[in-house]
Amino acid sequence: MAQGGLSVGYCPERRREMFLEREQTSRIGVVFYVSLAISVVFVLWGVFFTENLSAVTSVILGYVLENFAWLYLISTTLFLVFVAYLAFSRYGKIRLGKDDERPEFSRPSWFAMLFAAGMGIGLVFWGVAEPISHVETPPYAMAPAGSPEAAELGMRYAFFHWGLHPWAVYGVVAMAIAYFSFRQGRGGVISSVFYPLIGERVNGPIGKAIDIFAILATLFGVAVSLGLGALQINGGLNFLFNIPSEAYVQIVIIAVITVLFLASAATGVDKGIRILSNLNMLLAASLLSFVFILGPTVFLMDTFTQMVGDYAGALVSMSFERNVFEDSSWADNWTIFYWATWIAWAPFVGAFIARISRGRTIREFVLAVLFVPSIVSFFWFSTMGGTGIELDRTGDGVISSAVAENVNTALFVMLEQLPISFITSIIAMFLIAIFFITSADSASFVLGSMSSGGTLNPATPVKFVWGITISSFAAVLLLSGGLTALQNVAIIAAVPFAIIMLFMCAALLKALPKDPGAKRGSPSPRDVDDDIRVREKAAPKAATTSEPDAAKAGRGEG
């Protein structure tokens, strides 16, 4: 997932914190070494005992699906109910920061970065492939394959898989990190969230185990996304240049991209990630606009309008459906896979969303995080998936046939039906590659922070270590079974972190009633802005002041 850059806000105290953070050295300890040791063992297992890894993960997957599929369905829905409750309760006015702290980013910039966080390799990979797949294999066999009813179901479930539920998952982690880090000052690691439940033990073995689980879940989640990117780039090369769709080609792609994102990681957040985020947002918007304008535009708008209503009307029933009295394999292959992937991504995406949301109220945070990226995803699937379905219907099933043969080529087969398809296919592959680089770059930064005590300035060698580890995970999973292996390991890896997230909700519920802001309210953004203007106008001006002195002066210490 793409991420925007971070910048220093205007609050003097915040500037001082950022200055001190830049001076802070990365704190490498047991969390880093244990997480890395487990990762190395997994990679070596996959390289030297590939078939055994595949067999073991298949056995574990069967056990997880048989015993814990309900956990995914219930927990993700609980997360959605939980964040909605906080938004509209008396806690909604609590600020994710100090009461007099204003947001670091304007609303347009914040919305843009939330949009960037919602876009990624997954949307590009599944934008055409998922709705077309559902048309040919309708959810729970609720309609004849290839029928208009199947097409409607396909779009509805694509909205479901990329709508409010995943963003509620991210919102829980992001809100917890932001609240305990920015409002209570307990640090930016996952374990700090659990202070209300276990107290100082967050600094002991229990807290370290939580952070290790979060790192491992993130590794597997990001590896799944990068594996999908390698598969789709390979699919495009196969479609355009007849390059074989083989594991060794995908590993070469991963190796090339790894070199590029490590170079980006060396430049830091404000340069590498921000520049790449802006570039992939521009490319994604251009590709989406091209398909929307040259595709069946009126049909796409009708699809978007109707499917938003269908999704809203069926949200509750879809949230708990698994078809347990007949065949639950469809839910396991789609819904459970998606819910597990979002949970595995939650530490990574949550940390990013928390970072850009400092100073927002809980109510504003929840409404934006739930609805802004969800609407973007709905429009993406309406445009890409709707165009694929319509062109498939009028083109004698050419797209569905290609998806059945090789799902990695779905986007490129759809683009072939439109003008200048060779150029747009090249742009699409470039877009996937940029998303690949940005996701891995951002993930290496977040993993470096999580394994270094929550520092905002992880050392470049630490980021390199995690970047290489992420790529190694993706390569090993592709060797051990391609797309199926990616899906399997995502479902397995997310189980422990789903349980951790439930305890996160409990920690917030225990901490929020004690927050003074729940009783007296937090000032509005306009009040905060006016107060800061008054104080800045009244403060004496200095010709030249060092960074720490400027911070002290702003706080009345200088």
Please explain how this structure is put together.
The protein is mostly helical and 558 residues long. The chain is built from 22 helices and no strands. The chain has a single domain (12-523), classed as Up-down Bundle (Amino acid/polyamine transporter I). The chain is globular, with a radius of gyration of 23 Å.
Question: Order of helices and strands, N to C?
Answer: HHHHHHHHHHHHHHHHHHHHHH
State the low-pLDDT regions, or none: 1-10, 18-26, 522-536, 538-558
CATH topology: Amino acid/polyamine transporter I
Counted up, domains total 1
CATH architecture designation? Up-down Bundle
Count of runs of 4 or more consecutive helical residues: 22
Q: Which shape, going by the Cα principal axes?
A: globular
Overall pLDDT level: 83
Strand content: under 5%
CATH class value: Mainly Alpha
Distance between the termini: 42 Å
The secondary structure category is: mainly alpha
